[in-house]
User: Fold this.
Amino acid sequence: SDPSAVMVRAVFEPTEIGFDEVAPATKFIAYPNPANDMVNVTYTLTNGGNVMLTITDLAGKVVMTNDFGTQAEGTYTSSLNTSSLSNGVYFYTLNVDGVSVTKKLTIANN
Assistant:
């Protein structure tokens, strides 16, 4: 080994960067999933707020939107007619006062 060579050792320590975001709703679920003609979406709001439910396809195109307006803290269920949607995978997003949570929904119409 060359005594004049310099050895450099870099140490990278992971740091946590981020912020705490409160989920806008708990127990956010669509059933049945896979769905056919109808799907029920249930959610519990931890705080009241302006509530919107959006369904998008894999390309991000909005295929369905329900604006529920202002809702108080509590549990809600909405039944959606999905018979016009093609078979495939979609995402359903609940937005409460600008804070969103998104999950996957599969449509399997007969």
Observations:
- The mean pLDDT is 85.
- The CA atoms of residues 3 and 9 lie 16 Å apart.
- The longest strand covers residues 62-71.
